[in-house]
Design goal:
Pfam families: ADH_N (PF08240), ADH_zinc_N (PF00107). By secondary structure, the protein is an alpha/beta fold. Helices cover 26% and strands 27% of the residues.
Amino acid sequence: MASLPSSMKALVLNGPGDGVIKTVPVPQAVPGSIIVQVLHLLVYQITPDVFHGTVPNPGMKLPYPLTFGSPAIGRVAAVGPDTTAFKPGHLVLIDTNLRARDDPNVSVVWGAFDGFDEKTKHFVKESWRDGTWSEYVRAPLENTWALDEDKLIGKLGLKVEDLLHLALLPVLYSGLRKIDVKAGETVLIAPATGVFSGGCIAVARAMGANVIAGGRNAESLEALKARFPGIQTVQLKGEANDVASIQAFGQIDAFVDLGPWAATGSSYLGSAIQAVRKGGRVCLLGGRADATLPAPYLAMMFNDITIRGSYMFEGEHVRALIRMTEAGILKLNGGGGFEVLASYPFEKYAEALERGRSLSAGKIVVVNL
């Protein structure tokens, strides 16, 4: 095992919004894990709410005190006794889709919440309480992904911090894969002006799909056209003719919903579901809290519509996205509609979190260690 310092800086959360950078012991690698020296941390729209304990879903809690967490980019600093694929110095992505090795039903977003049942809460509290907002982190092997630095940085000219976009995209790629989106098909993505939806547009295009972006704000939709040249947009006004407005673009093969908690009850969902073609597919990938779906039973049955939910992702989805990026198919810079809006030093994490509240499609904020 490589030599590690005995102490490090970490952002410790003692309670909602009660964070302080403290000196704490450096973790040690155990079987199934490696130690990563953190370089860059991701801030996106939900990160400030996680920090302040204001996530709309009241069931999403954290086991305070803990080290704050979100996806990260770093370098392997030390390996565990059963590590075979990593060596010190490797550039890696750490994702936050944390699951128990012996029970896939025990699943959380690492550093964001500790689950909804006692077994899952115990798993997080006893084994994975501390997240990535520290100079070193003990990361599960299953959540750590090697990145080809020569291709990504040397050949393609990406910056290391650009690679943090990869942390958001597996959720979206997984949803698109689960409804079998194919090259040449037309996909409606709505609402389409947020960070996640911007990533969904980019991934769907990299998969060869035609994209129609839907939303209420005409100005924001025009900005999307500038960010993602070649897409089409439709303004959803919450009116009876929204279905016709969507279908005016021709056959809609699939619809991906990315509505946040605040979109609960919005009428666009029913219109978009009804706009897909016979045999079409719908993926529910957002955070709405509707108790029922606004979809006519007989219409769904007669038109053979598939509606499925999609939560998080599998390892194959991360590997596929990394390969797409290394091949230059998925572009994580301005050429692909992505942007690192701002970077902050660790000591100015509060400014980074505040900046993260106002992100739009394809943009992220980065904290540097």
